[in-house]
Fold each of these.
Amino acid sequence: MIKAFSDKQIASIVADPAAAVYLLDKPRGVNSFQAISTLRKLLNQQKVGFSGTLDPLASGLLIVSTGKATKILDAFHTLTKTYQAEILFGVRSITFDLEGELIKNEQAKIFTQDDLEDVLQNFFGKQLQTVPAYSAVKVGGQKLHKLARKGKFVDLPKKEIEIFSLEIKKFAYPNLFLEVQVSAGTYIRSLAHDLGEALGTGAVLANLRRTKIGHFSVEQAVSLADLSLESLKAGRLDLADVIQYLNQHLGQ
């Protein structure tokens, strides 16, 4: 369990001239580490980190910190995440998204929005979610996606997650646009897969955008295409305010 930061820790972090927190808008097709590499070169700093990896197929909010502010990154993991997800029904893939080969379900039957809303009710609240085979979670010291690519499939671990809200933004079978608010560690790919299985059609995650982490919004973020020293300076968050917000959350 992550503890709240003490006054001494806060003073040490804030006193570091290299310490800062930025919000980046990562584009689809770029992995999180590439985004950090770009920032590292621009700032000429090596001590740069981020909280909450986004898959290359996903876009959206990436929280980045530098210097001693990297010490607060783990605290962001405890915050709720909000995503806009596009789910495609009637197909399956081993990766639960478009990265794997799509297998069409010839027996899939079209369902209505009423059917969808009924099934969605079963996904609210705390639950055990099976980790995808193609993920960075380690089993026996090895990452699952590396084992899967070698054809070695193991018993997949389950983790407790919580789904706070599921809002249908648009639906016309086989496409669903869904806004979800979830606890840290929730795999939206797994949610899409499980939803498809519950409806008997199969489903994959077709697109994903992270819009919020706690109260931090992608609307405040600097896009990677517009990244410059000037845009970073303008978008730099007040470090003391960020830590105070995290402490309020950690103290709950």
Note: Residues 70 and 112 are 47 Å apart (CA to CA).
Amino acid sequence: MNRTLFAKELRANLFVSFIIVAVLAMYIGVIVSMYDPELGESLDAMMQSMPEMFAAFGMATQATTLLDFMLNYLYGFLLTIFILVLILVMVNKLMVRYLDRGAMAYLLATPNSRTRIALTMVGVLATVLVGLMVATTALEMGFGEALFPGELDMQALLQVNAGLLALWLAMAGLCFLSACLFSNATAALWVGGGLNILFFLMQMASQVGDKFEFLENVNPLTLFDYYGLAAGDASAVGGAVALAAGAAVLFAAAVAVFDRRDLSI
């Protein structure tokens, strides 16, 4: 890993990361503040009146604790698909734009191998996602403890967020591999991004009814079972480990592809 390049790219991606953290802080604060047994009954009534819509966004479980409430209204959609926006922005800045504008030639002209350059970009991407997870966890714990002292199961939250980080890294690995595979900038950015969006749409469809339930069997997002992780279920932990292993494989494949790719620069 090249420390100079790492520091440069990390600084270049801090602004958009801070924006994402600010938006997450707003949403997490609002969701946690909404935790109220009486409001929960109202939401349950809405859920029963529109079960398909709530199920599509992963909000079909009745919440009895603060952690359940957060899992229901944060993890089914916001903390999964929303992070994809940051991943796409970063992959574009770290790899796609360099290749599309021919600026990669300047990096390759330095005494750094392709593998070292690619690993540096992977390091920046992973570091930002880990930092974002630390910030997200701190926000959840902070708001939970400030508004409802002693109500939040911290250990279970950490278990869920470890699995969520594995999911983020797997999503990022797929996008980064796409960026290294394709020479066309649009394809490089949106093949990986489009596949992630497709997986989310498949998950939404599979949760609506039995007709599309089979989609769960071919969707890697199914490996992220946040309720199972909160309960310490062995199969949910295995799914999170599989996502982490998949992320490592995708990043390794991306580095190997970039190392052997014919670059027109």
Note: Residues 3-260 form one domain.
